[in-house]
Design brief:
heterodimer; A: 852 residues; five-stranded antiparallel beta sheet; five-stranded mixed beta sheet; 27 helices; B: alpha/beta; five-stranded parallel beta sheet; 5 strands
């Protein structure tokens, strides 16, 4: 079971995330029924699994919540903010519940459940006016026997109503009318019997359906005793449904035994006290068994043949039915009062049965009984002699009444038979029509789907072996990481092979090496794809943050996201969550003005905070912004000067001033509030982003808002690079930034002024890396210029020689190299030596700073 | 001869639980992740199925629709279909029964009980 529980936890975590997202969406579109349905379904899945795998607390809370959403789903109630708050609260709670490390006090849990039940009742009250089949209502104010009778009466009425409903679906109205009169007559009978005999047995149903059965030779009259377990309702089984199923099997008479019903003070509305004795005429004993197939463990069931043939056609039987039933009931009374059904009870009962069956099989009536009126009367005369004598005796006593009843019965039967015949004919017609339709449809389909069919047939041949065809599968992040590492190792080894092949003269080996290079590249790309996750997967947290914070800060804020399908390396996303959270908190706390200020400035009351993501080349840009008050450059400057981060008397550019906010130890907030300013400043954000080889910058305009833009590489671990040589050292330059490569004579460089080169008619500033790296070896005659694309300009860097393309598996440099800004990592080359990977942007920044 | 049972549930944990329980008892198991997915097992040339166990609440096509779809096919008029449900929702059960379900399995269910119910339905 444990392995499934583990699976459930994984699954539940996903469902919870989905739920959270949905609930937040429901808040924006409270009338979207589809979403409510989805919320309901997810709750249900959580609940079902929770019950299966031993998370009963999860089941408790989700059950209540599910019921509330059911009300809404059915249009009986509306979504309220309170509900959404509680829903989110519960979602959080379930999160902790499924966490195996956390433990929840049961008192705390009970409190949660209670508050939910309260909420549910509130919803129920709001929506259940007019619905009165509630068992609680039914059981109020009942103190004596008389009222107990009313219970059964209510039930009876209920049954009748529901029967009518059901019948009306199938039969015509005439039939219903008959049922009604029949039932109402019976009601009178019932009351009479009650009054006279003072028995607690009540007949509440007689069914004259399915007369066709009467023509079957093997029909028998069964006695079915059904005593459900006291808790059967709680297990979701409705005994009424079972009775109704019996009722549909054939002619039946149902007796209810109410002896076990306690006095009101001991009565619990969801316990079952009643048991039933059903006399049923049917030819299919298995059908009776099937009715009870799902409750066999929850009920005492005793099925026994009472009469060969239709006992209701036997006047003597009908006459003595009450005594007979009473006799049987007395036998069961013992069981009726015992609430717990034990296996011993069952055993003793079944042994009783066996004996009975043996003794009680006198062939009283094996005649084929026809339901036609014409044949009915002679039939009575032709009965066995013993029977006839008895009938005569009976006739003497209640001749007239009997005859009336029989005639009525027979009339009913013949009528219903006629109806069924008509129906059968109708059905036959419609069936044949259906068939034609189906064939036509098939033809159409065949024409349409020939191609599909082909692939299907191939698939279905596999089906017998293949167990699941799931389009996507979940793999643990660890496995993906391992795969990525292996791919990295493979590429490193492949590089070695390539180097080795270069130095051997073996054409065959060369082609193999080339193939491996190609394959490893494809493998790398595929492995990359695996580790890419859409930003969407974390956006939910941001939504939640904005929602909770805007409540807390009493600001009306709308959070918009764009391009959240943008995919990023899993590791990048993981490391981005904190920085983005921080930026959002800043925006909400400091950026967005309070409601009054916004009103004064004529801004819309609802403020905007947004998160955008988009690709650009091999980079991903993520923007976090708001339409708040913007950054105040003057304020920043004066503060920076005060803190010694900027020098007074120097004219700084706007960008320079703004970038000060990323310096350690700078915070503009006058009051350090609870929300932001937790000692983590924008400097930490910047550092985190840099660790991901990314950059962050800020744009702002007073009263219009602020936008932070984070630029990130698509992936961290493997890059397409250009292997270059400076002196005797090899370096890797990320291919993504290289625009063009030119060859140049060293003489030309010497002639250039202010480090400017003219290439293709364009002036391009350059850096001479030999100089910057203090390389002292022999300068080659010809050198090469890599033109680097930066956001706004082109810059050249000059290297001795470009060796070629190289897939670089980037290894981070050790802790000792943290202070340097020029290299972002190192990679192992094919011959085992190490090449440093240049961070070109930083190189440019660094060297321009020196030049200033 | 081993019987083939089709499991339809959108919850992976439930699917695996049922799959494991049934497979260890020697049943052949087919799996669908929702009603729509399950319908592929009811094509003309698909392997014969002896019993279906389906969840009711699923995306794309729910259990009730699935039952209705299956019952529309002449070949499967008498195929036993059980649905999974929790203790609440008598209405749901009625609906499912009307759609043609044979019976229900109440969650939670132990493997023993599950197998007992199945053997009853398959006899």
């Amino acid at each position: 079971m444990d392995q499934f529980a583990q699976k459930y936890i994984e699954e539940a975590t996903e469902i919870i995330a989905k739920l959270e997202e949905l609930i937040l969406e429901v808040e924006n579109q409270p009338d979207n029924l589809e979403m409510i349905n989805e919320v309901f379904r997810l709750m249900h899945t959580l609940k079902g699994g929770g019950a299966m795998f031993g998370f009963s607390k999860v089941t408790d809370v989700t059950h209540e919540l599910e019921s509330i959403y059911d009300f809404i789903r059915n249009g009986k109630a509306k979504v309220t903010k309170e509900l959404l708050d509680i829903s989110l609260n519960i979602v959080d709670y379930v999160k902790t519940l499924i966490n195996p490390k956390s433990s929840i006090e049961s008192s705390e849990h009970n409190k949660k459940v209670e508050s939910l039940t309260e909420l549910k009742n509130k919803f129920k009250k709001n929506c259940s006016n007019g619905k009165n089949n509630n068992p609680e209502n039914k059981n109020t104010n009942k103190t004596n026997n008389k009222e107990e009778k009313e219970i059964t009466k209510t039930e009876k009425v209920k049954i009748e109503q529901e029967d009518k409903k059901e019948i009306s679906g199938k039969e015509n109205t005439q039939k219903i009318d008959e049922e009604i009169t029949e039932n109402s007559e019976e009601n009178n009978d019932v009351e009479k019997i009650e009054d006279k005999a003072e028995t607690s047995t009540k007949i509440f149903e007689e069914n004259k359906k399915n007369p066709a059965i009467n023509t079957n030779k093997s029909i028998k009259t069964y006695k079915v005793f059904f005593k459900p377990h006291v808790d059967i309702l709680k297990n979701g089984t409705d005994p009424l449904l079972l009775l109704r199923e019996l009722y549909e099997l054939g002619l039946s008479k149902v007796f209810t035994i109410v002896d076990a019903v306690p006095t009101l003070d001991k009565l619990s509305y969801d316990d079952t006290y009643l048991c039933w004795l059903v006399l049923l005429v049917t030819d299919d004993r298995n059908a009776i068994d099937d009715v009870f197939i799902f409750v066999e463990d929850e009920a005492l069931i005793d099925i026994e043949v009472l009469y060969q043939g239709n006992a209701f056609d036997d006047e003597e039987f009908v006459q003595n039915i009450d005594t007979l039933v009473k006799k049987h009931i007395d036998k069961y009374k013992k069981d009726c009062i015992i609430n717990e059904v034990t296996t011993d009870d069952l055993n003793s009962l079944s042994s009783q049965n066996d004996q009975k069956d043996e003794i009680k099989t006198p062939q009283t009536n094996t005649k084929n009984i026809e339901t036609n009126k014409e044949e009915k009367e002679p039939e009575i005369k032709n009965k066995d002699e013993i029977l006839q004598e008895k009938i005569k005796e009976l006739e003497e006593v209640t001749k007239e009444a009997q005859q009336k009843e029989i005639i009525k019965e027979v009339e009913n039967i013949s009528k219903t038979q006629q109806e069924t015949n008509e129906k059968i004919e109708e059905q036959n017609n419609s069936i044949s029509e259906d068939k034609i339709d189906i064939f036509e449809e098939q033809e159409h389909e065949e024409v349409k789907l020939i191609e599909k069919e082909l692939s299907k047939s191939i698939n279905s041949k596999k089906l017998s072996k293949q167990v699941t065809t799931i389009s996507s599968l979940r793999v643990s992040a660890e496995k993906v990481d391992t795969l990525m590492n292996l791919v990295s190792e493979l590429i490193t080894t492949q590089a070695r092979l390539s180097v080795f092949v270069e130095n051997t003269v073996n054409p065959e080996l060369e082609s193999i090496a080339e193939n491996i290079q190609k394959l490893s590249r494809q493998l790398r790309d595929n492995a990359f794809d695996l580790s890419m996750v859409p930003l969407q997967s974390v956006v939910l947290r941001f939504q939640r943050l904005v929602r909770d914070l805007s409540d807390q800060l009493n600001k009306n804020i709308e959070f918009k996201t764009q391009g959240t399908t943008t995919e990023l390396d899993k590791r990048i996303i993981e490391n981005l969550i904190d920085p983005i959270m921080h930026l959002l908190r800043n925006s909400l706390d400091h950026g967005i003005e309070d409601k009054n200020t916004r009103q004064k400035l004529g801004k819309p009351e609802r403020a905007n905070v947004f998160l955008n993501a988009f690709y650009s080349g091999t980079n991903v840009f993520i923007q976090v912004g708001d339409d708040g008050k913007g950054l105040n450059a003057d304020e920043i400057k004066s503060k920076a000067i005060k803190k010694g981060l900027l020098l007074p008397n120097i004219d700084y550019s706007n960008d320079e001033i703004l970038n000060i906010i990323f310096e350690p130890g700078f915070s503009t907030a006058q009051n350090v509030s609870e929300v932001s300013g937790r000692g983590v400043g924008l400097d930490v954000v910047k550092r985190k982003v840099s660790e991901l080889r990314g950059e962050i910058k800020v744009e702002t305009e007073k009263n219009f808002g602020t936008v932070f833009t984070i630029k990130l590489p698509l992936t961290l671990s493997i890059i397409d690079g250009l292997l270059v040589l400076i002196g005797n050292t090899r370096y890797v330059v990320p291919m993504s930034v290289v625009h063009k490569i030119y060859a140049i004579n060293h003489e030309d460089l010497k002639k250039s002024h202010y480090n400017l080169l003219v290439l293709d008619g364009q002036q391009i500033p350059y850096y001479y890396l030999r100089e910057e790296f203090e390389e002292i070896s022999q300068i080659p005659e010809k050198e090469q210029v890599l033109v680097i694309n930066t956001e706004d300009k082109k810059i050249g860097i000059i290297v001795d020689k470009v060796i070629g393309e190289y897939q670089a598996v980037i290894k981070t440099l050790g802790r000792l190299y943290n202070s340097q800004q020029i290299f972002s990592g190192a990679t192992i080359l094919g011959d085992g030596s190490v090449a440093l990977v240049m961070d070109v942007r930083k190189i440019i920044d660094q060297f321009s700073a020196v030049n200033v | 001869m081993s019987r083939t049972i089709l499991i339809v549930d959108d919850s992976e944990s439930i699917r695996e639980f049922l799959h494991f329980t049934l497979a260890t008892d020697g049943y052949k198991v087919l799996v669908g992740i929702n009603g729509k997915d399950a319908m592929k097992f009811f094509q003309e040339d698909a392997v014969p199925i002896d019993l279906v166990i389906t969840d009711l609440h699923m995306p794309e096509m729910d259990g009730i629709e699935l039952i209705q779809e299956i019952r529309k096919l002449d070949k499967f008029k008498h195929l036993p279909i059980l649905f999974l449900t929790t203790e609440s929702g008598i209405e749901q059960k009625m609906k499912a029964k009307k759609a043609g379900a044979t019976g229900w399995i109440i969650k939670p269910i132990t493997p023993d009980k599950l197998l007992a119910v199945l053997s009853k339905c398959l006899r």
